[in-house]
Structure formats: C-alpha cells, structure tokens
Specification:
The structure is a homodimer. Chain A is an alpha+beta fold. In chain A, about 25% of the residues lie in helices and about 20% in strands. The first copy, chain A, folds into two domains: about 40 residues; about 230 residues, Protocatechuate 3,4-Dioxygenase, subunit A. In chain A, the strands form four sheets. In chain A, strands 1, 4, 10, 13 and 14 form a five-stranded mixed beta sheet that branches. Chain A is globular, with a radius of gyration of 22 Å. Chains A and B meet through α1, α2, α3, α4 and α5 of A and α1, α2, α3, α4 and α5 of B.
Amino acid sequence: MQHLTESSVTERVLERISDCPDPRLKQVMTALIEHLHEFAREVALTPEEWKAGIDFLTAAGHVTDEKRQEFILLSDTLGLSALVDIVQNRSRSGEATESSLLGPFYRRGAPELPLGASIAGDTPGEPILVHGRVRSADGKPLAGALLDVWQAAPNGLYDLQDENQPEMNLRGRFRTDQSGRFRFRSVKPSSYPIPFDGPVGAMLRALGRHPYRPAHIHFIVAAPGYENLITALYIAGDPYLDSDAVFGSRESLVVGYRPGDGKESGAPYREAIEYDFVLAPAAETAAAVSGDHPQTGGRSV
Amino acid sequence: MQHLTESSVTERVLERISDCPDPRLKQVMTALIEHLHEFAREVALTPEEWKAGIDFLTAAGHVTDEKRQEFILLSDTLGLSALVDIVQNRSRSGEATESSLLGPFYRRGAPELPLGASIAGDTPGEPILVHGRVRSADGKPLAGALLDVWQAAPNGLYDLQDENQPEMNLRGRFRTDQSGRFRFRSVKPSSYPIPFDGPVGAMLRALGRHPYRPAHIHFIVAAPGYENLITALYIAGDPYLDSDAVFGSRESLVVGYRPGDGKESGAPYREAIEYDFVLAPAAETAAAVSGDHPQTGGRSV
C-alpha cells in the first residue's frame, strides 16, 4: 500500500482510470482530475473552502429546474461557455459570422412565421424591423435557410420567466426567401440581469461583479450543407456591451438602429436592424444538415 | 471592445474580478478560472461534452438531499477530498496519527456512552472490542479526550441509509479515562459500495472503476489544546484496501484483529482492535478546542 502525498494522490486517481474503455472520456477526465488537483494544491484549498464549494454546488442543484439552469449560469459567468464556443469554432473561416452563447433560455418548437410577421404579439415596446440576408462565405445567397429567433421583452424577462407573457412570446422561426432574405418585426430588446437570486448571484456580488447582459436578440441559423450558427446581435450603445456578465458580446455582432422604411406587413416601425449572416460550410463529419442544435441537447429551456 | 480569443477570454474574466473586495476569494477564483479554462482548451472540450457536464451536475444536484450528498461523493471519487485533507495537514508533525476522510455519513449528536459500552445495539454481526489510548506526540496520555465514532453495519449501510437500523445505530461518543484509555464494543465492519445508483455511480462505471470502500471505522478525536483528528481505522486483509473508491485508506491506519480477552462489560467477544491515536498540538490560530469539526460545517449528514 503506497503512502499518499499531495502529488502521489493524483497519480493514484489517474491509475484508477487506466482501464477506462473510452479513450476520449479517459482523456477528458485525466485533464479534469489534473487541473482540479493542481487548483487545490496551488491555493492550498482549506476544508472550510471545500465545504463552501460543496454547499454552492448543492444550492445550485436545488435551484435548478425545468425553467432555471444555475449550472449553465455558472459556466456562463465564469467564461467557460464563451471559451467552449470559441474552441468549437477554431477552424471556422474568418469569413463566417462569429458565434455567441446559446444561453439558458432557448426553447425548441417556436412557431414558424411568414416573413415580415411580428414575434412580439401585444408586448409593449418600441417596434423595430429586423432584416438582412443569409449567405455563404463565397457570397451565395442561401434560400430556405431557417432562422430560429428569440429575445427578452423590454422588461428584461423571457417568456419562461414571466407569467404575464404568453407561451413562446418573442420567439419565432423564419425561412429566407429565394434571394436569401429574411425580415421580421419585434420590439427593442433591453439590457437585463441574469437571474441573480441564487448562488451564482451571490457569487457575482462576492466578486464585485454586476449581473447585466447588454441588449441582444438570439439567432440560430441553419441551412443544409452549412454549420449551424448559434449567435446573437447586440445593440450599439448599450452600457453593458463591454462588460457582458456572461462574455457573450462580440464587436462583429454589434448592430445599430437605423431609420426604417416605415411599414412592414401593414404595421408601422421607425427603426430597423440590418445584418447579413454568413454561414461556414459543414465539416465533413458534422450532422449540421439535420437542423438539430447540438448544444441544446434535449433540454427545453 | 476587445476581440475575444481562446486566451483573451481568460484575461477578460480575470479583469472582471479585479475589484473583488476579498483577497482570498479573488485568489481562489483566479486559480479556479485559470484551471477551468486551461482544462477546456487542453482537451478542446466540445459543446456536447460541455452539455454532458451540465447534465451531470444537474442530476447530482437533484439526487442530493438531507441524506445523500452526491457532490461529496464526486469530490471523494475524484480524489479531491483526500487531497484537501493532505494539504490541510501539510504542517502536521509526522508523529501525529494520519487523517482520513470524514465522508458523507457523519452525524452530529451521537450519544455519549460509558467506556466499554457497545455502539451496535442488536445489530447482527461478529462482536469486537476496540480499545487503545489517546496521547500527544511527546507521549503524554490525554485524559478526557472525546472520541466520536461511527461505522456502517455488516450489511454495508449506515443508519442514515437503512430504515431497519434505529437512529444513531453504530454511533457513539466516548471520553478517555485518567490514563488516556478508551474502549468500546461493536461488530466487525465490512467493505461496502458507496451509493452508485446516481450520476457518480454512472461515472465510475464509465471509467471502469468499482465503487467499494474497504471496511473501516470512523473517528473524530478531540482534546483541548490539540488539533481535531478526523480519521478512520481500516481492517487488514480487506480486498479493497489498495483500491478504496474514495482514496481514504492509509497504510498507517490499517489494523488487524487480535484475539481478545473474552469479555467486556459482561459481554463476550473473541477479537479486538487496538490503536493509539496521537494528536498534534493546535496551531495558534486554530479553534480546535471548541470541539467543533470545521469540515462538517452545519450539515447533519
């Protein structure tokens, strides 16, 4: 029986997974164990701090349900989600639109609506038009591309968080026309705090951080033969653009309101957002043509 | 607005906690963020793997309640708990008894019993005597030291896990006599699996690991002016001594059964365990004299 020391305990744990039948799982868990142990050694983590960590995870687990995902908030606020997103797109061409966080509020099954329709229903707010094109990196317009769109209401809440909003409010799916164009109506999004009444909120306060995200509209853009694009457009001038609590904002995704043409589908608006989404060709191994979004898995939140 | 890259995202997150008012929290979170990010970069963690991690933590949170602590099991099975324990005792004298894991089954408030009493009640099993001394590193016997003792029944279950055991079965507190001696009766402990019907069990299976702990008896030994000792005695010959699922067993804590004297408090036994616990002097800043056990915090499990 070997004597256990600060370094030999790591070797012992790694020996124990030497028979792991899945080489990728073994690789991921090896790195996880090494970094977890090195973290504890480096800061000389005390039993009291370890206990605080256990209590934090326990509280996060207990606040998590079908409509609230505290572990995703944790990953988002620690920058892990943004990093996974960037790593995932290591090989994506510089021509393609940058990706941004999916976030915890995506829902499958938003209604497919005709071009020009509004996703805002009766939601009070300043009406806007959102329009543009979907194209490939070499400039080809992509007809029939599917845009899955969602955003928070001007009160900063998604339908999932707000009993005064109807189901699927401010969500919709649109298909581009023959020239690759899309357009829909909505109301201006506003900056909002991520849910901060749980352990992640307590963590942000203890760290001296604010919980705000800059105003944005989420998009998943999918077309056969191209990588799914999970991204969002951020509104120029928002005070939280440079300090997004979840590190989602990107300079290339910032859009300004411009004076609009006045009417769309008979409804008035004064300002418009225009943006062209550029899709990267699907990697040979990717199943992107299915229209399934890997990061969303089977969750409905 | 800075462009985010695989490395700059880490800098951005660390900038965000630059105003953290608590220097130790800042130090711990800085190391945590750096290692978390380096882990994700090193293995190029995919969105699907990230999602599996979120789902794992969510499931662990949902299985955790007053009697089940999946996050402690996770920490234990990844060797983190053992490492924190070793780091905590970096400065402890080599003379003192080695510490071992508290584990998730400690309960406050076990009954204080007279020396020689049994903690096993009517539990079926092979009766044993456990006896020895508590002393300081320089050999001084410690009278009135408090031993908090707990173990699983021969069926491998703690009272908390087994509705057929009375409350506080196989738990007791004993005070050493004037010569620093203690003795109590029990039944032989057996090796047992940690709870493996949850996500940690699934993880162990995927890694090709078994869930067994070698047979052991837990102790917390406390005396005014000395560090609390959280440890356990492991039974010689147990097949899992070298592959404890939670990395708790230590060579210096392995004890064998010896033929016993035959009777204690009028009850027969054939075998006995003898062990002397050696306590380290309390660090000047430690509150060890209070009899409180920091690692247990306020939890009753």
